[in-house]
From TrEMBL:
Swiss-Prot/TrEMBL keywords: Hydrolase
Keyword hit for Hydrolase: yes
Record's protein name: Alpha/beta hydrolase
Similarity-based family: Belongs to the 'GDXG' lipolytic enzyme family.
Lineage: superkingdom: Bacteria
Pfam families in UniProt: Abhydrolase_3 (PF07859)
Domain Alpha/beta hydrolase fold-3, first and last residues per copy: 79-280
Length: 326
């Protein structure tokens, strides 16, 4: 296991994230491609893929994706995971550590869309790709009640907003959704955007504002697909929101929880005191991270069938769509 010094990790993560934002804005020394590759390598080196999980690249109806399958996967059980990275960086390869851990703990096949990133593709491109991947999974034969949608940071916001878009397109809802440290309000008006700016070890308001300007491509910051605190969330499945007590995004995550509650969406909000952004990454290095991952898995299991009849999932053990390199 890689040894991780938590403060050093967060400092390096902040540096890598800043490099991506600079490159995307055209003011840094690196190209966007080089900055993204450095970001990926940092994640790969910090969080290697676990043993006992097979990773395959697939074409999810035109969206490149990665499938992570544990050896003891429950037949027909699926998790769609939307990675973070401020819609500017991040990819399935860099997330094999966390995704592989979730696959093993949940005993589920995990689909990780490699959704389009800014500045090459601005909103609503990430939402479109997330919905396409979810639709593809259903068309492959997955039953909605056997699917959970989850994500972190930008992907945590999409764990809600992509379902809003899917609902509006008439797609059936999955069993549940898990939003980890969601970047839920690109207006950045929550109180902790100011009170915890400088306390949050990896994210600050200025950096988030720069990223938002790039990824929105001129769309308003209160676009409900970019900022789900403004979305009509009626009819969504049960949602778990997990956020850290030291996150600048904390107040806006609480606001998202309030919006879901007002729209009569079954909801659970967990706030982990003293934790920074997506502390789940540090499972096996930080007890609070192990607890957060375990709580997320328990929430998913609470809403998924214990097992799925084999006759209902023929061919779903490991589908063989066309392969892509991601």
């Amino acid at each position: 296991m890689v040894s991780i010094d938590v403060p050093v990790f967060y400092q390096e993560w902040a540096t890598r994230s800043g490099g991506v934002i600079d490159a995307a804005a055209g003011v840094g020394p690196d190209t966007v491609e080089d900055a993204r590759l450095a970001y990926r390598k940092f994640f790969q080196d910090s969080f290697p893929a676990p043993d006992g999980v097979t990773f395959d690249s697939v074409d999810a109806d035109g969206v490149a994706a990665q499938c992570a399958t544990p050896a003891d996967a429950v037949p027909g059980r699926h998790l769609v995971y939307l990675h973070g990275g401020a819609y500017l960086a991040g990819d399935p390869q860099g997330y094999r550590g966390l995704v592989g851990d979730l696959a093993r703990r949940l005993r589920a096949r995990v689909v990780v869309p490699h959704y389009r990133l800014a500045p090459e593709a601005v909103f609503p491109a990430p939402i479109e790709d997330a919905v396409t991947a979810y639709r593809w999974l259903l068309e492959e034969g997955a039953e909605p009640h056997n699917v959970v949608l989850a994500g972190d940071s930008a992907g945590g916001a999409m764990a809600v907003s992509a379902l809003v878009a899917a609902r509006d397109q008439g797609l059936p809802m999955p069993a549940a959704s898990i939003a980890i440290s969601p970047w839920a309000n690109l207006e950045h008006t929550g109180a902790t955007m100011f009170t915890l700016d400088g306390v949050d070890p990896s994210v600050n308001r200025a950096g988030l504002s720069r990223a938002a300007d790039i990824v929105l491509g001129g769309a308003p910051r209160n676009n409900p697909l970019a900022s789900p605190v403004f979305a009509d969330t009626r009819g969504l499945p049960p949602v778990l929101i997990q956020t850290g007590g030291h996150e600048v995004m904390l107040s806006d995550a609480v606001r998202l929880a309030a919006k879901l509650a007002e729209d009569s969406v079954p909801l659970r909000l967990d706030v982990a005191p003293g934790m920074g952004h997506v502390w789940h990454l540090l499972a096996a290095h930080l007890p609070a991270a192990d607890k957060a991952v375990a709580d997320a898995v328990a929430f998913a299991e609470e809403h998924l069938p214990a097992a799925v009849a084999e006759e209902n999932v023929e061919g779903l053990g490991r589908p063989q769509p066309s392969r892509l390199s991601i």
